[in-house]
Amino acid sequence: MTRLGYQIPNFNYPGVDAAGLFERVAAQAVAADRSGFDTVLVMDHFYQLPILGPPTNYMLECYTTLAALARETSHVRLGALVTGNTYRNPTLLAKIVTTLDIVSNGRAQLGIGAGWFDVEHEGLGFEFGTFSDRFEKLEEALQIILPMLRDERPTFEGAYYRTKDAINQPAPISRIPVMIGGSGEKKTLRLVAQYADESNLTAPAAEVPRKLDALAAHCERLGRDRSEITVSRHINVCIADTHDGAYHEIVKFLSGRGLDVESMDAAMRDQILDMLVWGDADEVGERLTSIMESGIDGVTCSLPANGWEPERVEQLGATATKVPGLG
Question: Is residue 87 within 8 Å of 57, Cβ to Cβ?
C-alpha cells in the first residue's frame, strides 16, 4: 500500500491550454514514477475545489486520466484520492477499477470516500442527500464492489443499491488494494476497520494519535488485526531550491486565489504557512521525518503551487526517499 504517493491536485498551468494539458499531467506522473514514489493519484472531482481555484478551472475526469497515465508509467500504482461514491453506481465503479488494473498490468488501487462537495453535486445533478445517507450508501457500495474485485458474483439488496449475481469479467489481474479516505472517528474509521486495506487521513498532525487510537478500537471491536491496515496521511508540499524560493512560490500561488500573504498579520500568515510542508530540500526532509514519527506508515503529497514543474516532483521524490520509512 501507499508509502509515498504523489497526487495531482490541479490542471491549470501557466501557458498551457487544453490541447497541451495531458502532456503536462503525464510529465508529472512520469517524474513521480522515476523518482521513488510508489503511487500516483488523481482527485475525483468535476469542479475545482475552492482552496485551489474557481469551479471554472480545468478538471479532468479521474479514471479516464488514470487509464491514460497507465500507458505513460511503469511502476507506480494508480488510483483516486479518493473516488466519490456518489458519482457512480458501485457495479460500474468495480468495472472501471478492474479495467484500470488490466490496462496498467496490475497497478490499480481503489481509493473511495462518501462524497462531500455539495456545489458539484448540485451543479451536475448528482444526488447528495444527508451526511448519514452518504455513509450508508458507501457501506452498501463496499459490499458490492469488494466481492466484484475478488472475482465473486454478489447478490445484494439494500436501501440504495441492488445486484443479482453481478458478473465482473475479466477479473482483476492483481488483488486491488482498497483505501478509504477521511478522518471521521465514528463512521469513516469504522469502515476502514471493516473493509479497507488502507486509511488515508486528512487530519492535522496533532489529531493523528487520536485517529490511530480510534482505528485501533474499531479493529478490536470487529476482530480485525490492526497491523493489516496501512495508515497514510495527506499533506500539501511546496519544495524549491531555497527557503526563499519556496516562500515565493507559495505567495504567488495564494495571490492567484485572492490571498495576499504578504499583507496579513504575522499570526494569520503563520497559520496558513503551517498548513503546508515547505522550504528547501533539507527543511522538507525534516518536516517529513517528524510527520513519519507520528506513527503513520506513509504520506500522500500534492504540490499545488509548483507540481506542474516535473523537476519539483523529482526533487520531492529524491528528498522524501531519504526519510526513514519513506525510502
Answer: no
77 neighbors 69 (Cβ within 8 angstroms): no
Domain spans of the chain, in order of start: 4-239+278-320
> Residue 79 belongs to what H/E stretch?
strand 77-80
For the segment 142-178, what is each residue's pLDDT rounded down to a tens digit? 999 999 999 999 999 999 999 999 999 999 999 999 9
Q: Are 64 and 138 in contact (CB under 8 A)?
A: no
DSSP 192-223: HHHH-SEEEE---GGGHHHHHHHHHHHHHHHT
Q: Which triple of cell numbers denotes residue 203?
A: 487530519
Torsion angle defined by CA atoms of residues 101, 105, 107 and 111, in that order, rounded to the nearest 10 degrees = -10
Side chain identity at 150, as an amino acid letter?
A: R
Whether the pTM exceeds 0.90: the reply is: yes
**For the domain bounded by 4-239+278-320, which CATH number is listed?**
3.20.20.30
Burial class (CB in 10 A: 0-12, 13-18, 19+), 277: buried
CA 100-2-309 angle, 5° bins: 80
User: At which residue does the C-alpha cell 462537495 appear?
Assistant: 117
As a whole number of angstroms, the distance between CA 80 and CA 94 comes to 13
Spatial separation of the C-alpha atoms in residues 171 and 148, rounded to whole Å: 8
Q: Helix (H, G, I), strand (E, B), or coil: what is residue 251?
A: helix
Tell me the per-residue pLDDT of 6-54, one tens digit each, with 9 for 90 and over: 999 999 999 999 999 999 999 999 999 999 999 999 999 999 999 899 9
C-alpha cell belonging to residue 200: 488515508
